[in-house]
Amino acid sequence: MAVCSVSVVPVGTGSTSMSSSVAKCQEILEHTEGVKFQLTPMATILEGDLTVILEAVRRMHHVPFEHGAKRVLTTVIVDDRLDAPLTMQGKIESVRRKLGGRGR
Amino acid sequence: MAVCSVSVVPVGTGSTSMSSSVAKCQEILEHTEGVKFQLTPMATILEGDLTVILEAVRRMHHVPFEHGAKRVLTTVIVDDRLDAPLTMQGKIESVRRKLGGRGR
Amino acid sequence: MAVCSVSVVPVGTGSTSMSSSVAKCQEILEHTEGVKFQLTPMATILEGDLTVILEAVRRMHHVPFEHGAKRVLTTVIVDDRLDAPLTMQGKIESVRRKLGGRGR
Amino acid sequence: MAVCSVSVVPVGTGSTSMSSSVAKCQEILEHTEGVKFQLTPMATILEGDLTVILEAVRRMHHVPFEHGAKRVLTTVIVDDRLDAPLTMQGKIESVRRKLGGRGR
Protein backbone atom coordinates (compact mmCIF):
# COMPACT_ATOMS: atom_id res chain seq x y z
CA MET A 1 0.00 0.00 0.00
CA ALA A 2 1.36 3.41 -0.99
CA VAL A 3 0.33 6.95 -0.12
CA CYS A 4 0.69 9.48 -2.97
CA SER A 5 -0.02 13.13 -3.61
CA VAL A 6 -1.21 14.19 -7.05
CA SER A 7 -1.61 17.64 -8.51
CA VAL A 8 -2.86 18.21 -12.07
CA VAL A 9 -2.35 21.70 -13.53
CA PRO A 10 -3.89 22.85 -16.84
CA VAL A 11 -1.57 25.32 -18.64
CA GLY A 12 -2.54 27.94 -21.18
CA THR A 13 -6.30 27.82 -20.61
CA GLY A 14 -6.67 31.57 -20.10
CA SER A 15 -8.25 30.95 -16.69
CA THR A 16 -6.47 31.10 -13.35
CA SER A 17 -9.06 28.80 -11.78
CA MET A 18 -8.17 25.14 -11.32
CA SER A 19 -11.08 24.04 -9.13
CA SER A 20 -13.22 22.61 -11.98
CA SER A 21 -10.36 20.41 -13.02
CA VAL A 22 -9.71 19.30 -9.42
CA ALA A 23 -13.43 18.52 -8.98
CA LYS A 24 -13.47 16.37 -12.13
CA CYS A 25 -10.37 14.50 -10.94
CA GLN A 26 -12.16 13.84 -7.68
CA GLU A 27 -15.11 12.37 -9.58
CA ILE A 28 -12.69 9.91 -11.20
CA LEU A 29 -11.44 8.88 -7.76
CA GLU A 30 -14.98 8.41 -6.48
CA HIS A 31 -15.34 5.72 -9.15
CA THR A 32 -11.95 4.08 -8.58
CA GLU A 33 -12.20 0.85 -6.57
CA GLY A 34 -9.61 0.30 -3.86
CA VAL A 35 -8.29 3.86 -3.61
CA LYS A 36 -8.97 6.09 -0.62
CA PHE A 37 -8.45 9.78 -1.23
CA GLN A 38 -8.44 13.11 0.54
CA LEU A 39 -8.49 16.62 -0.91
CA THR A 40 -5.99 19.11 0.53
CA PRO A 41 -5.40 22.76 -0.45
CA MET A 42 -2.34 21.80 -2.55
CA ALA A 43 -2.88 18.25 -3.82
CA THR A 44 -5.17 15.26 -3.70
CA ILE A 45 -3.77 12.45 -1.58
CA LEU A 46 -4.37 8.81 -2.57
CA GLU A 47 -3.91 5.61 -0.60
CA GLY A 48 -3.92 2.17 -2.18
CA ASP A 49 -2.04 -0.26 -4.37
CA LEU A 50 0.61 1.59 -6.38
CA THR A 51 -0.37 0.09 -9.76
CA VAL A 52 -4.01 1.09 -9.21
CA ILE A 53 -2.93 4.56 -8.08
CA LEU A 54 -0.69 5.13 -11.13
CA GLU A 55 -3.57 4.15 -13.42
CA ALA A 56 -5.82 6.66 -11.59
CA VAL A 57 -3.10 9.30 -11.98
CA ARG A 58 -2.97 8.64 -15.72
CA ARG A 59 -6.73 9.23 -15.96
CA MET A 60 -6.61 12.35 -13.75
CA HIS A 61 -3.80 13.72 -15.94
CA HIS A 62 -6.09 13.49 -18.99
CA VAL A 63 -8.99 15.39 -17.40
CA PRO A 64 -7.88 18.91 -18.45
CA PHE A 65 -7.26 17.73 -22.04
CA GLU A 66 -10.87 16.49 -22.18
CA HIS A 67 -11.98 19.99 -21.16
CA GLY A 68 -9.96 21.93 -23.69
CA ALA A 69 -6.52 22.42 -22.15
CA LYS A 70 -3.63 21.97 -24.58
CA ARG A 71 -0.90 21.45 -21.97
CA VAL A 72 -0.98 19.74 -18.58
CA LEU A 73 1.61 19.49 -15.80
CA THR A 74 1.05 16.70 -13.30
CA THR A 75 3.12 16.23 -10.14
CA VAL A 76 3.04 12.92 -8.29
CA ILE A 77 4.89 12.06 -5.08
CA VAL A 78 4.81 8.40 -4.02
CA ASP A 79 5.58 7.34 -0.44
CA ASP A 80 5.88 3.58 -0.11
CA ARG A 81 7.27 1.40 2.66
CA LEU A 82 7.67 -2.31 3.31
CA ASP A 83 8.49 -2.37 7.01
CA ALA A 84 5.18 -1.04 8.36
CA PRO A 85 1.67 -0.42 7.05
CA LEU A 86 1.39 3.01 5.42
CA THR A 87 -1.92 4.85 5.53
CA MET A 88 -2.96 8.50 5.35
CA GLN A 89 -4.45 8.31 8.85
CA GLY A 90 -1.47 6.43 10.31
CA LYS A 91 0.97 9.04 9.00
CA ILE A 92 -0.95 11.90 10.63
CA GLU A 93 -1.45 10.01 13.93
CA SER A 94 2.23 9.23 14.13
CA VAL A 95 3.10 12.95 14.02
CA ARG A 96 0.34 13.87 16.49
CA ARG A 97 1.57 11.31 19.02
CA LYS A 98 4.97 13.02 18.90
CA LEU A 99 3.29 16.37 19.48
CA GLY A 100 1.53 15.02 22.58
CA GLY A 101 -1.86 14.91 20.90
CA ARG A 102 -1.92 18.46 19.61
CA GLY A 103 -1.24 19.34 15.98
CA ARG A 104 -3.26 20.75 13.13
CA MET B 1 -0.69 35.78 0.30
CA ALA B 2 0.59 32.45 -0.99
CA VAL B 3 -0.31 28.85 -0.20
CA CYS B 4 2.63 26.42 -0.17
CA SER B 5 3.26 22.77 0.54
CA VAL B 6 6.51 21.76 2.24
CA SER B 7 8.00 18.33 2.76
CA VAL B 8 11.34 17.82 4.54
CA VAL B 9 12.97 14.39 4.16
CA PRO B 10 16.02 13.27 6.18
CA VAL B 11 18.22 10.92 4.10
CA GLY B 12 20.66 8.30 5.39
CA THR B 13 19.52 8.32 9.01
CA GLY B 14 19.06 4.54 9.20
CA SER B 15 15.44 5.05 10.25
CA THR B 16 12.43 4.85 7.97
CA SER B 17 10.41 7.04 10.33
CA MET B 18 9.98 10.71 9.47
CA SER B 19 7.33 11.68 12.03
CA SER B 20 9.76 13.10 14.63
CA SER B 21 11.18 15.42 12.03
CA VAL B 22 7.69 16.45 10.86
CA ALA B 23 6.65 17.10 14.48
CA LYS B 24 9.69 19.34 15.06
CA CYS B 25 8.94 21.27 11.87
CA GLN B 26 5.41 21.78 13.14
CA GLU B 27 6.79 23.22 16.40
CA ILE B 28 8.70 25.80 14.33
CA LEU B 29 5.47 26.76 12.58
CA GLU B 30 3.62 27.11 15.90
CA HIS B 31 6.13 29.85 16.73
CA THR B 32 6.05 31.58 13.31
CA GLU B 33 3.94 34.75 13.35
CA GLY B 34 1.64 35.29 10.38
CA VAL B 35 1.71 31.79 8.94
CA LYS B 36 -1.30 29.46 9.09
CA PHE B 37 -0.48 25.80 8.58
CA GLN B 38 -2.14 22.42 8.21
CA LEU B 39 -0.61 18.97 8.40
CA THR B 40 -1.55 16.51 5.65
CA PRO B 41 -0.40 12.91 5.12
CA MET B 42 2.12 14.01 2.44
CA ALA B 43 3.20 17.57 3.27
CA THR B 44 2.63 20.48 5.60
CA ILE B 45 0.66 23.29 3.95
CA LEU B 46 1.45 26.91 4.78
CA GLU B 47 -0.53 30.09 4.10
CA GLY B 48 0.93 33.56 4.45
CA ASP B 49 3.31 36.10 3.00
CA LEU B 50 5.77 34.39 0.64
CA THR B 51 8.89 35.94 2.18
CA VAL B 52 7.82 34.82 5.66
CA ILE B 53 6.97 31.35 4.32
CA LEU B 54 10.36 30.94 2.59
CA GLU B 55 12.13 31.89 5.82
CA ALA B 56 10.05 29.26 7.68
CA VAL B 57 10.94 26.71 4.99
CA ARG B 58 14.64 27.46 5.47
CA ARG B 59 14.31 26.76 9.19
CA MET B 60 12.24 23.60 8.65
CA HIS B 61 14.87 22.37 6.18
CA HIS B 62 17.53 22.63 8.93
CA VAL B 63 15.55 20.58 11.50
CA PRO B 64 16.87 17.13 10.47
CA PHE B 65 20.48 18.42 10.44
CA GLU B 66 20.03 19.55 14.05
CA HIS B 67 18.95 16.01 14.92
CA GLY B 68 21.82 14.17 13.27
CA ALA B 69 20.85 13.77 9.61
CA LYS B 70 23.67 14.36 7.14
CA ARG B 71 21.51 14.89 4.06
CA VAL B 72 18.10 16.50 3.66
CA LEU B 73 15.75 16.76 0.67
CA THR B 74 13.11 19.48 0.91
CA THR B 75 10.30 19.92 -1.61
CA VAL B 76 8.36 23.19 -1.75
CA ILE B 77 5.47 24.02 -4.04
CA VAL B 78 4.28 27.64 -4.04
CA ASP B 79 0.84 28.62 -5.33
CA ASP B 80 0.45 32.39 -5.59
CA ARG B 81 -2.14 34.53 -7.34
CA LEU B 82 -2.83 38.23 -7.74
CA ASP B 83 -6.36 38.22 -9.12
CA ALA B 84 -8.16 36.76 -6.10
CA PRO B 85 -7.41 36.07 -2.45
CA LEU B 86 -5.73 32.69 -2.00
CA THR B 87 -6.30 30.74 1.21
CA MET B 88 -6.18 27.07 2.17
CA GLN B 89 -9.86 27.12 3.10
CA GLY B 90 -10.90 29.04 -0.02
CA LYS B 91 -9.15 26.54 -2.30
CA ILE B 92 -10.98 23.59 -0.72
CA GLU B 93 -14.36 25.38 -0.71
CA SER B 94 -14.01 26.26 -4.36
CA VAL B 95 -13.66 22.58 -5.29
CA ARG B 96 -16.49 21.51 -2.97
CA ARG B 97 -18.87 24.04 -4.53
CA LYS B 98 -18.17 22.44 -7.91
CA LEU B 99 -18.91 19.02 -6.43
CA GLY B 100 -22.29 20.23 -5.16
CA GLY B 101 -21.17 20.30 -1.55
CA ARG B 102 -19.76 16.80 -1.35
CA GLY B 103 -16.06 16.03 -1.48
CA ARG B 104 -13.54 14.60 0.93
CA MET C 1 4.70 12.28 -26.30
CA ALA C 2 5.36 13.53 -22.78
CA VAL C 3 8.50 14.77 -21.04
CA CYS C 4 8.81 13.77 -17.37
CA SER C 5 11.28 14.13 -14.55
CA VAL C 6 11.69 11.27 -12.09
CA SER C 7 13.55 11.14 -8.80
CA VAL C 8 13.66 8.00 -6.65
CA VAL C 9 14.88 8.42 -3.06
CA PRO C 10 15.64 5.49 -0.72
CA VAL C 11 14.79 6.38 2.90
CA GLY C 12 16.24 4.84 6.06
CA THR C 13 19.14 3.01 4.41
CA GLY C 14 21.78 4.45 6.73
CA SER C 15 23.67 5.79 3.71
CA THR C 16 23.53 9.33 2.39
CA SER C 17 24.58 8.17 -1.07
CA MET C 18 21.91 7.79 -3.74
CA SER C 19 24.12 7.30 -6.82
CA SER C 20 23.95 3.46 -6.82
CA SER C 21 20.19 3.63 -6.88
CA VAL C 22 20.23 6.26 -9.64
CA ALA C 23 22.66 4.13 -11.68
CA LYS C 24 20.40 1.06 -11.38
CA CYS C 25 17.39 3.12 -12.46
CA GLN C 26 19.38 4.24 -15.47
CA GLU C 27 20.09 0.59 -16.37
CA ILE C 28 16.33 -0.02 -16.41
CA LEU C 29 15.90 2.89 -18.81
CA GLU C 30 18.66 1.57 -21.09
CA HIS C 31 16.47 -1.50 -21.55
CA THR C 32 13.17 0.36 -22.01
CA GLU C 33 12.09 0.57 -25.65
CA GLY C 34 10.73 3.88 -26.84
CA VAL C 35 11.93 6.07 -23.98
CA LYS C 36 14.70 8.62 -24.38
CA PHE C 37 16.31 9.74 -21.13
CA GLN C 38 18.84 12.17 -19.77
CA LEU C 39 20.48 12.28 -16.35
CA THR C 40 20.55 15.65 -14.58
CA PRO C 41 21.95 16.55 -11.15
CA MET C 42 18.45 16.50 -9.60
CA ALA C 43 16.35 14.03 -11.59
CA THR C 44 16.31 11.74 -14.59
CA ILE C 45 14.31 13.16 -17.47
CA LEU C 46 12.29 10.84 -19.71
CA GLU C 47 10.70 11.45 -23.10
CA GLY C 48 8.16 9.11 -24.66
CA ASP C 49 4.64 7.78 -24.53
CA LEU C 50 3.11 8.51 -21.11
CA THR C 51 1.87 4.95 -20.49
CA VAL C 52 5.33 3.55 -21.26
CA ILE C 53 6.94 6.20 -19.04
CA LEU C 54 4.64 5.48 -16.09
CA GLU C 55 5.45 1.76 -16.35
CA ALA C 56 9.19 2.65 -16.34
CA VAL C 57 8.62 4.87 -13.29
CA ARG C 58 6.93 1.98 -11.48
CA ARG C 59 9.97 -0.21 -12.10
CA MET C 60 12.44 2.55 -11.12
CA HIS C 61 10.46 3.08 -7.91
CA HIS C 62 11.03 -0.60 -6.98
CA VAL C 63 14.83 -0.49 -7.48
CA PRO C 64 15.74 0.60 -3.93
CA PHE C 65 13.43 -2.06 -2.42
CA GLU C 66 15.31 -4.72 -4.40
CA HIS C 67 18.54 -3.44 -2.82
CA GLY C 68 17.38 -3.43 0.78
CA ALA C 69 15.62 -0.11 1.32
CA LYS C 70 12.43 -0.33 3.37
CA ARG C 71 10.95 3.01 2.30
CA VAL C 72 11.08 4.87 -1.01
CA LEU C 73 9.92 8.34 -2.03
CA THR C 74 9.48 8.88 -5.77
CA THR C 75 8.70 12.25 -7.33
CA VAL C 76 7.38 12.43 -10.90
CA ILE C 77 6.54 15.57 -12.86
CA VAL C 78 4.79 15.05 -16.19
CA ASP C 79 4.74 17.75 -18.88
CA ASP C 80 2.40 16.89 -21.71
CA ARG C 81 0.98 19.00 -24.54
CA LEU C 82 -1.30 18.44 -27.51
CA ASP C 83 -0.74 21.60 -29.53
CA ALA C 84 2.91 21.08 -30.43
CA PRO C 85 5.48 18.28 -30.32
CA LEU C 86 7.17 18.09 -26.92
CA THR C 87 10.75 16.84 -26.69
CA MET C 88 13.61 17.35 -24.25
CA GLN C 89 15.71 18.95 -26.98
CA GLY C 90 12.89 21.14 -28.27
CA LYS C 91 12.19 22.52 -24.79
CA ILE C 92 15.83 23.55 -24.29
CA GLU C 93 16.13 25.03 -27.81
CA SER C 94 13.00 27.08 -27.33
CA VAL C 95 14.52 28.78 -24.26
CA ARG C 96 17.91 29.26 -25.97
CA ARG C 97 16.28 30.96 -28.95
CA LYS C 98 14.73 33.46 -26.54
CA LEU C 99 18.14 34.05 -24.98
CA GLY C 100 19.63 34.83 -28.40
CA GLY C 101 21.54 31.57 -28.56
CA ARG C 102 23.27 31.78 -25.21
CA GLY C 103 22.11 29.82 -22.19
CA ARG C 104 23.58 27.06 -20.11
CA MET D 1 26.38 24.32 -0.56
CA ALA D 2 23.05 23.02 -1.79
CA VAL D 3 21.86 21.83 -5.19
CA CYS D 4 18.24 22.75 -6.04
CA SER D 5 15.85 22.38 -8.94
CA VAL D 6 13.40 25.19 -9.65
CA SER D 7 10.45 25.29 -11.99
CA VAL D 8 8.25 28.38 -12.36
CA VAL D 9 4.90 27.90 -14.13
CA PRO D 10 2.62 30.79 -15.17
CA VAL D 11 -1.06 29.77 -14.94
CA GLY D 12 -3.98 31.28 -16.83
CA THR D 13 -1.97 33.23 -19.38
CA GLY D 14 -3.80 31.82 -22.39
CA SER D 15 -0.50 30.60 -23.81
CA THR D 16 0.90 27.09 -23.56
CA SER D 17 4.44 28.38 -24.02
CA MET D 18 6.64 28.75 -20.97
CA SER D 19 10.00 29.38 -22.65
CA SER D 20 9.87 33.21 -22.39
CA SER D 21 9.36 32.93 -18.67
CA VAL D 22 12.17 30.37 -18.33
CA ALA D 23 14.49 32.63 -20.36
CA LYS D 24 13.74 35.62 -18.11
CA CYS D 25 14.41 33.51 -15.02
CA GLN D 26 17.73 32.54 -16.54
CA GLU D 27 18.60 36.21 -17.01
CA ILE D 28 18.04 36.71 -13.27
CA LEU D 29 20.44 33.86 -12.54
CA GLU D 30 23.08 35.32 -14.88
CA HIS D 31 23.10 38.34 -12.56
CA THR D 32 23.08 36.39 -9.28
CA GLU D 33 26.53 36.25 -7.64
CA GLY D 34 27.60 32.92 -6.19
CA VAL D 35 25.02 30.71 -7.89
CA LYS D 36 25.93 28.25 -10.64
CA PHE D 37 23.01 27.09 -12.75
CA GLN D 38 22.12 24.69 -15.53
CA LEU D 39 19.00 24.55 -17.69
CA THR D 40 17.38 21.13 -18.13
CA PRO D 41 14.23 20.20 -20.08
CA MET D 42 12.16 20.11 -16.85
CA ALA D 43 13.73 22.55 -14.40
CA THR D 44 16.61 24.92 -13.84
CA ILE D 45 19.19 23.51 -11.44
CA LEU D 46 21.02 25.83 -9.04
CA GLU D 47 24.13 25.26 -6.94
CA GLY D 48 25.21 27.56 -4.14
CA ASP D 49 24.50 28.77 -0.64
CA LEU D 50 20.90 27.92 0.30
CA THR D 51 19.99 31.42 1.53
CA VAL D 52 21.24 32.94 -1.74
CA ILE D 53 19.39 30.29 -3.74
CA LEU D 54 16.09 30.85 -1.91
CA GLU D 55 16.36 34.59 -2.59
CA ALA D 56 16.96 33.83 -6.30
CA VAL D 57 13.93 31.52 -6.26
CA ARG D 58 11.79 34.31 -4.82
CA ARG D 59 12.82 36.60 -7.67
CA MET D 60 12.31 33.89 -10.32
CA HIS D 61 8.84 33.23 -8.89
CA HIS D 62 7.90 36.89 -9.52
CA VAL D 63 8.98 36.91 -13.18
CA PRO D 64 5.64 35.75 -14.66
CA PHE D 65 3.72 38.31 -12.55
CA GLU D 66 5.89 41.06 -14.04
CA HIS D 67 4.88 39.83 -17.50
CA GLY D 68 1.14 39.70 -16.91
CA ALA D 69 0.44 36.31 -15.33
CA LYS D 70 -2.10 36.39 -12.50
CA ARG D 71 -1.18 33.05 -10.95
CA VAL D 72 2.18 31.29 -10.62
CA LEU D 73 3.11 27.81 -9.39
CA THR D 74 6.75 27.35 -8.39
CA THR D 75 8.28 24.00 -7.45
CA VAL D 76 11.60 23.87 -5.61
CA ILE D 77 13.50 20.76 -4.55
CA VAL D 78 16.51 21.31 -2.29
CA ASP D 79 19.23 18.68 -1.89
CA ASP D 80 21.66 19.55 0.88
CA ARG D 81 24.27 17.47 2.67
CA LEU D 82 26.84 18.03 5.40
CA ASP D 83 29.01 14.93 5.08
CA ALA D 84 30.44 15.58 1.62
CA PRO D 85 30.64 18.47 -0.85
CA LEU D 86 27.55 18.61 -3.04
CA THR D 87 27.85 19.97 -6.57
CA MET D 88 25.90 19.49 -9.79
CA GLN D 89 28.97 18.00 -11.50
CA GLY D 90 29.85 15.77 -8.55
CA LYS D 91 26.36 14.28 -8.44
CA ILE D 92 26.47 13.35 -12.13
CA GLU D 93 30.04 11.97 -11.93
CA SER D 94 29.13 9.81 -8.97
CA VAL D 95 26.39 8.08 -11.00
CA ARG D 96 28.61 7.74 -14.09
CA ARG D 97 31.36 6.06 -12.07
CA LYS D 98 28.82 3.45 -10.98
CA LEU D 99 27.83 2.94 -14.61
CA GLY D 100 31.45 2.31 -15.59
CA GLY D 101 31.79 5.62 -17.38
CA ARG D 102 28.76 5.37 -19.60
CA GLY D 103 25.51 7.20 -18.87
CA ARG D 104 23.60 9.97 -20.56
Q: Key terms for this structure?
A:
homotetramer; globular; alpha+beta; 104 residues; Alpha-Beta Plaits
SSE blueprint and pairings:
The structure is a homotetramer of 104-residue chains.
Chain A: E1 2-11, H1 19-30, E2 36-39, E3 44-48, H2 50-66, E4 71-81, H3 88-98
Antiparallel strand pairs in A: 1-3, 1-4, 2-3
Summed up:
With 104 residues, chain A is α+β, with helices and mostly antiparallel strands. Chain A contains 3 helices and 4 strands; from the N terminus they run E-H-E-E-H-E-H.
Describe the structure.
The structure is a homotetramer of 104-residue chains. Chain A is an alpha+beta fold and 104 residues long. The first copy, chain A, has a single domain (2-98), classed as Alpha-Beta Plaits (2-Layer Sandwich), CATH 3.30.70. Helices cover 38% and strands 29% of the residues of chain A. Chain A has 3 helices and 4 strands; from the N terminus they run βαββαβα. Chain A has helices at 19-30, 50-66, 88-98; strands at residues 2-11, 36-39, 44-48, 71-81. Chain A has a 4-stranded antiparallel sheet with strand order 2-3-1-4, covered by helices on one side. In chain A, strand 2 and strand 3 (44-48) form a beta hairpin. In chain A, helix 1 (19-30) packs across helix 2 (50-66). The model of chain A has no long low-confidence stretch (mean pLDDT 95). Chains in contact: A-B, A-C, A-D, B-C, B-D, C-D. At the C-D interface, strand 1, helix 1, strand 2, strand 4 and helix 3 of C face strand 1, helix 1, strand 2, strand 4 and helix 3 of D.
